[in-house]
Specification:
137 residues; 36% strand
């Protein structure tokens, strides 16, 4: 599916929209495809905070929500060829459906709204990570 979207107009529009939401941050790159997006709860120092995540075929980015679907800031970009994913066990009512994103730059826990969303995110992340690592070899 990613191959089909690489040069599509719809993909270019979606990426341009994400760039605009982050104040013009340049995210378009050759062969880059926006795979998915959503709000996840990111474990910050003392509490969970909602963050907007965007999964591309080669990077994952996230930022603070200023206006949902309109404006985000504090963009963080993690190259997927450096990322590892580890599913987390549920701990109490607030720490369910989580996984850890591990990279040399930054590592943290995130939590989805339900188990099916968690499974979809992990599946898509692992598929994109494997693809990036194969291309790197």
């Amino acid at each position: 599916m990613v191959d089909r979207l690489v040069d599509s107009e719809a993909n270019a529009r979606r990426i341009a929209n994400v760039e605009n939401c982050f104040g013009g941050e340049v995210l378009a790159a050759p062969n880059r495809v926006l795979v998915g997006e959503g709000v996840l709860q990111k474990q910050c120092r003392k509490q969970l905070k909602p963050r907007q995540f965007f999964l591309f075929n080669d990077i994952v980015i996230y930022g603070t929500i200023i206006m949902h679907r309109k404006k985000y800031n504090n963009i963080h970009i993690l190259p997927l060829d450096e990322v590892r994913i580890v599913a987390l066990d549920d701990i109490g009512p607030e720490r369910q459906n989580g996984w850890q994103i591990i990279s040399p730059r930054k590592s943290f826990n995130v939590y989805a709204a339900n188990s099916s969303e968690k499974n979809e995110w992990i599946q898509h992340l692992n598929t994109c990570i494997e693809s990036c690592q194969k291309q790197k070899r």
